[in-house]
Amino acid sequence: IDTVSEFLGFDRVVDTYKESLQGHIVQLGADIKLNGDWVPEIDANGNLTNKPSAVQTFQPIGDSNWFRGTFDGKGHTISGIYVDRNAGYTALFGRIEKETTVKNLVVKNSYIRQSGADNAWIGSIIGFSYGGTVSNVYSNAIVVANGAQMGGMIGRAEGTVSQCWFDGIMKCTN
Description:
The protein is globular. The chain starts with a helix and ends with a strand. Helices cover 7% and strands 39% of the residues. The chain is built from one helix and 18 strands. The strands form four sheets. Strands 1, 2, 3, 4, 8, 12, 16 and 17 form an eight-stranded parallel sheet that branches. A four-stranded parallel sheet has the order 5-9-13-18, with no helix packed on it. A three-stranded parallel sheet has the order 6-10-14, with no helix packed on it. The chain has one helix at residues 4-15; strands spanning 25-27, 32-33, 70-72, 77-79, 82-85, 89-90, 93-97, 101-108, 111-114, 121-122, 126-130, 133-139, 142-145, 149-150, 154-157, 160-162, 165-166, 169-172. It is mainly beta.
């Protein structure tokens, strides 16, 4: 994956076409800037103070279908993720299973907000990990939730997490 268009196409394959990509390796070949050079800023309540007028909203990968492959960022950065919704799995990857690996990735300058769904999981990288592996991942995203299970990296982790670092902002509005 080398472009925003290819990255969004990968998202569509998993969620729209219901392909879990089990056994497949997906790799970044370049940095991905979903909303240009935008750097989100929030007020004391976790609301954006500088939302672009033409912001591209991101639908989490594995939102309606589990992603079961390997995602290797190869040290590249995904930036400008904007998610603001009232739904269960809220993150770059909504949900992953035991067959899944997410590794070697940087997420920067992103805003991920979940506004009150029951049984919700929110993080900057993964909403719900049911046995997956996450390694060598960094995030400085802003994660805002209202009544959800939340974490800077992963909302709920039931798998292996190693060499990961969160240096962003977590804000619970409830």
